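Subgroup meeting minutes
Present: P.N., E.W., G.H.
Scribe: E.W.

1. P.N. recapped why we're keeping a running log of single-chain structure predictions: easier to compare across weeks, and new members can see raw inputs and outputs side by side.
2. G.H. added today's entry (419 aa).
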Amino acid sequence: MKPPKIGKQTLLRDNPISEISFDKYIKEVYERDENENPLYTGRYFLILNEGNRSVVKATKLLESRFGFTVANTADFVTESLNESKIKDANALFYNDLGIALVDIEADQIELLESSRQDYLIEPEKVVYIPDDIPAETDEVSAWGIEITEALYSQFTGDGIKVAVIDTGFDTGHPDFAGRLITTSSFVPDGTVKDLHGHGTHCIGTACGSFDMDGVRYGVAPGTHIYAGKVLSNEGSGAQAWVLDGMTWAANNGCKVLSMSFGSRVFAGQSYDVAYERAAQFALSKGTVIVAAAGNESRRSKNRFYPVGSPADCPSILAVGALDQALDVADFSNRAINPKGLVDVAAPGVSVYSSWIMPVRYRTISGTSMATPHVAGIFALLFEKFPDATPLMAEKELRDMARSLSISPEDVGVGLSIAP
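Output recorded in log:
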């Protein structure tokens, strides 16, 4: 399978089947910033209406009518899926999700459209790390651990598997020596090594412990860390790599999955069905998913953006960001679209956590930083309630949240509080 088109270049591909037109994209985004990142990779998803029940039928269609070589995730039971292992394939079926990733030309899309009876066609998105905002202070303060009461909890997330899929992880970071760490890379021909820093920072907040001076910065220091690399060292990736990471976490028994990345969503745009399928699969396996609401808003300038993708999916909890005064962060996105709600909020301004060596620590801001706080709190809840289902744990999280005098469209049920 050819690598997707990911980069800073603008991709303006005619795509009449997407829920947002490129005309709107050009009007709202492209004309404002000629260097705007592309929305789509140039590949497509076939989303089967009958789910995995029609995989065999769809496989035969692609093989017989288009002469495709078709791979299937069922072929990767004993090893993690990576696109570098299926370079000769034109299509990949996510057997459990009833979705196929296809790499085809525009004329073939027209043929698929004309043949369509029991599937939808959606473009594959490019996924990015939100633009993290540098902190305005160099003061070392893990205030988020204190305000969420994780610092005072009797629980550590002992033995709970927590997956963070991102830019990877600095497995040689001295603060994590002796920890249980499982890794996998879904970036073709890439290792899990984090050369960006974002993934290591998020893992530190969710699962870290103390810095070299004894400052506690991690919510759940007793967890078994699952670090998946789904984004390149430049901070971008293909949606299929994210689906690979999501299913990997679920199939490995992770109770919590944290995702601090996404794709921009526009007013009126619906959630992505491929992500929702993966989220429902994860829930069926006992995995709760939290994701960053996104950083595109500038509230001080009266600019508001909807919750980003995949956080806008009904089966994924979207996390908004708060500052130290427990006001909603200036950049934090809002529940504008009907399904794209903000579910809960957490500290996301001036968050101190681990960073790749030799820097070791860094303080930054973003909904990316708020999300792993909630992931860590979920780990504490699963330790306290070992038999809890994802829905039971979510109810407990909502019930324990501290209500704020801020609209739920910005902070959901309020500040997430540790048990």
